[in-house]
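As agreed, record minuted below.
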Amino acid sequence: MQVYKKLDIITNKHPLKERDGITHHVMDHVNWNEEYFIHRFSKEANNAIEDIHSRGKIPIIIGGTHYYLQNLLFKNKTVGENINNSKVTRELTKDDVELLDGPVAKMFDKLRQIDPIIAEKFHPEDKRKLRRALEIYMTTGQKPSEIYHEQKLDELEDTSLRYNTLLFWVYSDPEILKDRLDKRVDNMMELGALDEINELYEFYRAQVPVPDCTTGIWQVIGFKEFLPWLESTGSLNKEESSRWFNQGVDRMKIRTRQYAKYQVKWIKKLLAVELNKEARFNFKYGGKLYLLDASDLGSWNEKVREVGLSIANQFLTTGPSSVTHVQAPEHLQDIFPDNSFLDNINSNKKLGSEKNWKHYECKVCKDKQGKNLIAVGEENWQIHLKSRRHKRQLGSGERKRKHEQMINQYKKLTPTSEDSLYI
C-alpha cells in the first residue's frame, strides 16, 4: 500500500524526519485509480536494486506484503514468472482478452478445462492468479502445471535466490505486539488519519462504477473498516455516529492484528520452507533467517541493533556462509522453524506438492458472494473445520434441524380437519 501516493499515516510510511536522508525507493508514486500488480513491483524493485548496486551500496528491503517480497527475493516463485519472448508463440486475440477481463467464474471454468491440475491450486475467486495462468497457456500453448513442475526441478540444480541475501525477522512476543499494534492505530487517529480516510472516501464516491474493496488502494487497512460509518454520515445522531466510528477503529485494530498473525504464519510456513532449500548449497548465497527479539524496546540497542549489525558485518566481510551467530536466541528457539518442522511440513512449495492440490467445499458456510465456501488444500480445510465460524454455523444448523423436527412431530400429534370429523 505504501506505493500509493499520500496516505502517509494509514499506510504507515516511515516519517521523512526519521529517514536521516536515506532514499526510500518504490514508494509514494502510484495514483489511487491504478491497480498495482506484482510484476510491476518486481520490475521497479529490481531496477532500484540494480541502481543501488551500481553505486556500490547495499540495498535494504523492508516490508510486510510477503507475496510481493517472495517474488522479489526468489526466482520462479510464481507460475511462469520467467517466461521469455522465445516461449511466446502467439499474441492474445480479442476473444482471449474478453475472457481475461470478464467474470472470474468463466476464467475458472476455462482453466479447469485446459489445466485441471493448476486450477486446483488456486481459489475460484482469485482473479489475478487465474488470469495469469490462462494468459500463460494462451501465449505459450504450455500448461501452467507443466511449467510449475519444471520450475521445481530447477530448484534442485541451483539456488532460487536472486541475490546474496541476509534476512532478519524482527520479532515481538504476541501479547506485547497486540498492545503495540492497538496503540499504533490510536496514534494514527491522533496524527490525522481521519483526514486521509475522508479524502480517500471522497475519491471513492466519485468513481464509476463503485470500486471493489478487494483491489488496489481500497484494500488498505483503515478504509473499508470505516465504510459503514462514512456511508451513514448525516443519517446518524451524534451518539450513533460516535459509536459507529469507534466500531471502525475497533475493526481496524482487529484487521491489523490479523495481518500481523498472517505475517508470522508466512515466515514459518512459506519463507522458512523456501530458505531451507538453500541448505543443499550450504547457504553459500545466504538465505539464513536470523531472529532479533524486539519484545522489549528498552533493550533495542542490545538485542536488535548490535546483534543485527554484527551479523551483517560478518555476512558482508567474510561471506554468506561464514556467519557464526545462532539464528535465534535460546529462549525463542521453540518458535523458530527447525529442520524437523521444515522437513515434515505439508507445503505446496515442494516438488510433487501438486498431488495434494484440492478444493474442499463447505456445505454450511458461505463466502461473500453467498456461495458455498471453498478451502484450497488440506491444511486450509482443516483450519476452517476447527474455526469458530464453522462451528457456529454447525451449531446454527443443528438448532434449525431440531426446531424443524419438533414442528414436524407437533404436526403429527395435531389432528387435521379431516380427522376431526371422526372425533
Summary: The mean pLDDT is 86. Strands lie at 165-171, 286-293, 359-366, 372-376. The chain is about 50% helix and 5% strand. The longest strand covers residues 286-293.
